[in-house]
Amino acid sequence: MTDGTRGTGIPDRSPWSVDLLADLHAGVLDPRESAQLWAQVNTDPQARAIIDALDSVKDDLEQLRDAPAPPMPAHFAARLDAALDAEARRAFSGQQAGAPVIDLAEARRKRSRRMAWGVGALTAAAAAVAVTVAVLPGAKQTTDGVAAPVPSAAEGTGVEPPLAVKTEDIGTVAGQLGGKKDYGPLKDQAGLDKCLERSGLDPAKAQTIGVRPVTLDGKPGVMAMLTTGEATKFRILVVQADCTELFNGTIGR
Amino acid sequence: MTAAASSDADLIAAHAAGDPRAFSELVHRHRDRLWAVALRTLRDPEEAADALQEAFISAFRAAGSFRAESQVTTWLHRIVVNACLDRVRRRQARPTVPLPETGPGEPVSPRDAMSDRETSLVVRTALAELSEEQRVPIVLVDVEGYSVAETAKMLGIAEGTVKSRCARGRAKLAKVLGHLRNPSADANVPGDAIERRDAPTRRHLEGR
Lengths: 253, 208
Fold this sequence. Notes:
Helix content of chain B: 55-70%
Distance between the termini of chain A: 70 Å
Low-confidence stretches of chain B: 97-113, 185-208
Oligomer: heterodimer
Radius of gyration of chain A: 29 Å
């Protein structure tokens, strides 16, 4: 190829640009240039090797579609189950569905601003004023929704106030526990483990997914989400500081 | 109805008829596969989990309008992808937060003598190295199997742009995955903004 045309009258493009061939391969080039280049590529082993490499990439990516992948992590799965349980309760209890999806990331951001928010997701009225309803200081607290942080001395200290939870909303609130480890009056995992044992649970088997202080139907306590040995079922335990059990049940299936 | 013996379409119908367990069964059948879709589209597990939750709740509410002529899995897949793309758009509208280049414990390594599972891990990790601009169209076209036209419509960009971004991404993956025997032979293995020696002579269709 001394004349740079390989005798075809077409300029020799060796060494080939991977970008150029990737564009050719993807159909980016106009038909005329594409036809001209394919004619060259098909007679040049170097170019063919690059095209083959790009084909291999496409094959790898296609195989990814059905390749085994890691399952959804347990704490995310629990959160999803809890959200769907809440949605099912709303939909099938005769209450009006159609409230906006709770954006968990947004909810987290709002909590972090230490605002007292009531997450109104149950009524059309709440939907009309967006998902969240600010509770003015001194105003009656809204507890219709998923969970409402109780305004307390903890505000502004960097410590999240306990969530006010009703027993019937436990499944929903539990979904917000994933990854949080605030033991409150139990202090640490050892404190929680004592309560687990008091409730007849084996701390070695019931691994803690999330913990945080709550008030359950007005009684202060600590809520823990625990593994059960079944991937889609989680135990929710709410105990007081002295390990008196306020709630012990499972969510998921 | 025995949930285990029901088809996906039966479960959707049962859900629409008021069976409170039917949708949950459907979610448990498809959750992990759709989690993988969300994760490779968004990369960030927190965002992927939120997108999947939004998608399933949207599907829960829209199940009554599901048309039996389409497959439930296709329908769910599209809802999940759309929820992910909504988040991509929102993310692009706010200042970028850098994500780790690779997931924990998932180094890219040469692919010699790898099992299929290891290959998948390497491909997933390499995919995560692409910029979002390249990764998302590649995931939609090459992994999820959407056409260039569908992808362009979903992303709100021209078909030529989809092709071009896929081309850039595949070229980079060819290098990262070790498919190019001598990737340094041409100094033009793509980064995000490498000048091409032959660019002036080329007529690109991007944006058409």
